[in-house]
Specification:
With about 220 residues, the chain is α+β, with helices and mostly antiparallel strands. About 15% of the residues lie in helices and about 30% in strands. The chain has two domains: about 60 residues; about 130 residues, YbaK protein (Alpha-Beta Complex), CATH 3.90.960. It is built from five helices and 13 strands. Strands 1, 2, 3, 4, 5, 6, 8, 9, 10, 11 and 12 form an eleven-stranded mixed sheet that branches. Strand 5 and strand 6 form a beta hairpin. The longest helix is centred in the middle third of the chain and has 9 residues. The protein starts with 5 loop residues before the first strand and ends with a strand.
């Protein structure tokens, strides 16, 4: 299959009309079926929710996964907007695990943040570690000052109602959970994380990720696989 060339498209979109739903009228029909490669959005607070960015579009019309198929979990999207976050959205083949996502998206495992939900006898918490690290439940328990275990998939689904199972973003704040961030994620230049499905990753700079994790408790709570 002959591939088309990649070209940048200027994006100006109001937050009420997400461009990944093709709600913005300026998108021409000629690229309606083009596949978005990367989307960089930078909210402009003074323009009442307007965001400006650049989308890289593949001109090959045979790539039919259109802009309308891209979606970020509602609570994550609101959280990013509320923090005026600058980020990129990248699409990748459907995956079922964090390490598979890293492989398919060509992202180093230590730069992909994965969220693990733990529970005590009376509450849940989020632990955020690199994709190629194991969570140390004993160290998490030391931070929480309680005995912790892993939450079940059904319990997690009840909390993250806007996310696919196994594709939760690494921010507890928009979901009402306390968060514990592994220190290893402070040592990488940029961080990738799930957008709420199994086909999109959000990329932010380390400084942006640190800002978004301002409410998290930082500690060494995992070890490399």
């Amino acid at each position: 299959m002959k591939r088309g060339f990649i070209r940048p498209i200027l994006v100006i979109a109001h937050k009420s009309y997400p461009i990944w739903q093709r709600s913005v009228s300026w998108i021409p029909d000629s690229i309606a079926n083009a596949r978005p490669r990367t989307l960089m959005m930078d909210p402009v607070p003074d323009l009442h929710g307007v965001a400006i960015g650049v989308m890289l579009i593949d001109d090959n019309p045979t790539l039919t996964r259109g802009i309308e198929n891209m979606a970020i979990a509602d609570k994550l999207k609101s959280f990013l907007e509320a923090n005026n976050a600058t980020y990129e959205v990248t699409q990748h083949p459907h995956t079922s695990s964090s390490m598979e996502t890293a492989k398919e998206a060509h992202v180093p495992g230590d730069r992909l943040a994965k969220a693990v939900i733990v529970k005590t006898h009376d509450h849940y918490a989020m632990v955020v570690v690199p994709a190629d690290y194991y969570v140390d439940l004993d160290k998490v328990g030391d931070q929480i000052h309680d005995i912790v275990g892993m939450a079940t998939e059904d319990e997690i689904a009840e909390i993250f109602t806007d996310c696919a199972r196994g594709a939760i973003p690494p921010f507890g704040e928009p979901y009402g959970l306390p968060s514990y961030l592994d220190s290893a994620l402070r040592r990488v230049p940029e961080v990738y994380f799930e957008a709420g499905d199994h086909e999109l990753l959000v990329k932010v700079s380390n400084a942006e990720f640190s800002k978004l994790q301002a409410s998290a408790t930082e500690a060494t709570i995992s070890h490399h696989m």
